[in-house]
Automatic annotation (TrEMBL):
PANTHER family noted in UniProt: DNA-BINDING PROTEIN, TRNA-SPECIFIC ADENOSINE DEAMINASE-RELATED
Region (Disordered): 1-42, 229-262
Protein name: DUF655 domain-containing protein
Taxonomy of the source species: Archaea, Promethearchaeati, Promethearchaeota, Promethearchaeia, Promethearchaeales
Secretion signal, residue range per the UniProt entry: none
Length: 262
């Protein structure tokens, strides 16, 4: 046997990694059934969900061929205050106006199409940033009872700090004034609350706090914005843990229970 033949005969068979695993080549890369892959989870909005229209971008979408012409909009879902980019029905755009409240129906005659993705606050357009404050003012006034209930029932976080102190502009003095007044008699509406506690402006305080919670994803306490865990679907559903339990053994924190109540 020549030196050349001996060299090739000593190599042995090629390893699986060199040849390529036939099972791997047949299966190919994993694919997401929901579309978009792990990095781009599919989002959807349940029928009956209420959203407020923040901005309309008539040429902001991208179709399957890559043409930027599909109309889209930016909306805010309530009562969780999550932000979405949603496709629009071209035939219904003329019927829409900013700050409009729309119910998701899933029907073909609906002005809203399929939601494309969830948005962060810094992804909002300039028009959306101008509109969102007006929308929040509208929502807070329309849902006055929800926020009055918060003021009447919210309790302490720890021995040294109260949830009222999380609200913008509320320090110890103003907090004590609110607590003393509500102890004598619960508040019935914003006007009465402001009359009895002149230093507290309900509408402005709640709007500012909601915007703070939208802007900062690292806040320790969320009073109104519902921050979903990464494994949650954007519809609001939480996958059941593999062990069959409701919470996977996770203890419910006081902050979690507070969001459920308000």
């Amino acid at each position: 046997m020549s030196d050349r033949d001996r060299r090739y005969s000593n190599r042995g068979p090629r390893s699986t990694s060199q040849r390529g695993d036939p099972r791997r080549s047949r299966s190919g890369p994993s694919r997401s059934r929901g579309g978009g892959g792990r990095g781009h989870p599919r989002v959807f909005l349940r029928n009956g969900t209420i959203v407020y229209l923040l901005d309309i971008l008539q040429h902001g979408g991208v179709d399957k061929a890559g043409h930027s012409w599909n109309p889209i909009c930016q909306v805010m879902e309530v009562p969780s205050f999550n932000l979405y980019e949603v496709s629009l029905n071209k035939q219904k755009i003329q019927e829409l106006k900013l700050q409009q409240k729309i119910q998701v129906t899933g029907r073909e005659d609906s002005p809203l199409g399929r939601p494309n993705k969830k948005l962060k606050y810094d992804q909002l357009t300039h028009a959306s940033l101008q509109t969102i404050g007006l929308v929040l003012e509208q929502y807070v006034l329309e849902n006055e009872e929800r926020f009055i209930k918060f003021i009447n029932n919210v309790g302490p976080i720890t021995i040294k700090r109260h949830y009222l102190e999380v609200l913008p502009g509320v320090g110890k003095k103003l907090m004590n004034e609110i607590l003393e007044n509500r102890h004598r008699k619960l508040f019935e509406n914003f006007e009465e609350l402001h009359t009895r506690v002149p230093g507290f402006k309900p509408k402005e305080v709640f709007v500012k706090r909601i915007i703070e919670e939208l802007e900062d994803e690292e806040l320790k306490h969320y009073l109104f914005v519902k921050r979903r865990r990464p494994e949650d679907r954007s519809s609001g559903g939480t996958p059941r843990p593999r062990d069959g339990s409701r919470d996977g053994g996770r203890r419910t924190s006081r902050n979690d229970s507070l969001r459920k109540r308000y």
